[in-house]
Amino acid sequence: MSGTYLVSVGLSALILLGIRLMSSPKTARQGNRLAAASLLMAIFFVLYSNQILSSLLLWVAIATGGSIGYLLAIRVSMIKMPQMVALLNGCGGGASALVALIEIIERSAQMDFFTRTSSQLALLVGGITLSGSLIAAAKLDLRLPQKPVVIPQAKLISLILLLTAVVLAFVAATNLAPQTVVLMSSLVITLSLVLGILFAIRVGGADMPVTISLLNACSGLAAAISGFTISEPLLVAVGAIIGASGLILTKIMCSAMNRSLISILQGNTIVCTDSQTITPTVEHRSTPGQGQSPAELIRNANSVIIVPGYGMAVAQAQMQVKKIADLLEQKGVDVKFAIHPVAGRMPGHMNVLLAEADVPYEKLYEMKEINPGFKDTDVVLVVGASDVINPAANTAEGTPIYGMPVLNVAEARHVIICNLDTKPGYSGVENALYSMSHVSLLPGNAAATLAKLASEISDPSCLENGITDAQVQTSAGVLKEARSVIIVPGYGMAVAQAQMHVKKVMDLLEQRGVDVKFAIHPVAGRMPGHMNVLLAEADVPYEKLYEMKEINPGFKDTDAVLVVGASDVINPAANTAQGTPIYGMPVLHVDQARQVIICNLDTKPGYSGVENTLYTMKHVSLLLGNASTTLENLINALQGGRSDIPT
After folding, report:
1. Is 0.70 surpassed by the pTM of this model?
2. 545 contacts: CB under 8 Å, gap ≥ 6
3. What does the pLDDT read at residue 186?
4. Which of 207, 378, 387, 644 does the annotation list as catalytic?
């Protein structure tokens, strides 16, 4: 028996070490692998110590669960990672409740009072975790309203249900009649599921990071309690570790929001009302450099702090953020990232997204560390953040965010905000920052806004390309009227990271019944298969991708071709311009289509140096500029709106 405890302690220590390593971006991957491997060893050890390794059903269950988890993990996008975490929390709570319920059904008569009590607690905590996590995941995935659902007398109802569940659990723990115990237990788990729904449904977006970390703690707590039910010390230890880490994280989240854990447990979530949506009075400041464009401000800066928020995650703009950071550092600018603890949908959300974009972890600074430096910073670039930078948190008493620590963005010399719009964040409090004299607003989709800003920073000559809204609308009209469209991606799409926009265009056209195909030239991009990889990243079905020999005969029967960042591989001069580097090179027969729309940065020759005769043909429309920005305008026009280009 001592050997069993020794192994349990060793495995628990490895899991604890894995969690410890995950606290740093530098060692997070190692910690995740160590914790996962230790948990797998723990499962096999429990099966071995209970002499049930030979059970075929267990192996089928492990294989099934492992396969489902693997498929979900590799398919989930970073933007949906919070939903994934919420679902995993729910699965943990549900599994613990299920273990306790099976124990109750099978051997309630043989249980002592302690085991009966622990089994009822596992039902209660596990049920709340399961339903609360499912509601949280549904809200995060927009399957339920993200705003808090106000339920009349919710506190009183929750208190009555909780007391009823406790009474039923006590009856089940003290009763020896198996049928009564099973009935009471069924009622307990039913009430716990309702309690979880009531708790999570009232949570708004501003409280979601705290909710997820709290449910994570509940998942670990439920596992530990179920460990007592089945007398498995390893499950108790692992559950306690997970529960403790979740509680620590919850405490950090609560401190970051200046909220008490008790208030959240009681369901006192941030609920917006019209009376709370007020505009606080904040002193405006006057600073040198006003009147300059955002790109000029950034180009002339010596220090820049980038503040990412949930809007960056929604727009998948982390790659554009990294590009801007790289451009600035090449110019000798000191660039830092300010991370608010509750920015995003779960703790560490911004860290994960920026790590995905290969932003060095040394550039990420927590709020307490970065806040004193804002007053000495030339420019702050905000990407999709609102509540966590709202100075109203310091002045607007009676609002949901009053007293919440925020990033001191307002103290910087200049602030550039790339948010979708100027509407309040999830707290419902107007952001006073938007009206300050040293603040520049760049409303719109963050990915498109940043792509345009990056172009202006790297090449000021690309600021004005002469494109009008009428040109965008005309091109959108061509695509709307088409029955068949071929999209030709090129290296310019890769540079602009425009593959997501290309996918959006495809989806919009297919919704109209348009037959959409992609023409892939073998040497498009920087390496063989470059375009295939980028389009696969954007979830473009591989059946839509056609090689040159297969697609070329179809151009003459195609209504419209949309070129995104390609030049040499579509240049008809390859067939006529003898003595040039591309003469005789097979190209895509784009010129044979009825209409051609070209979204290239400019009309300069490609790498071959050969002027592209396609650009001057009568049936060709040019939408010059950064492909992400151009396609964003085109998408708006396809959706029935207007582009953000002035007429």
Report:
1. no
2. 518, 520, 531, 532, 535
3. 93
4. 387
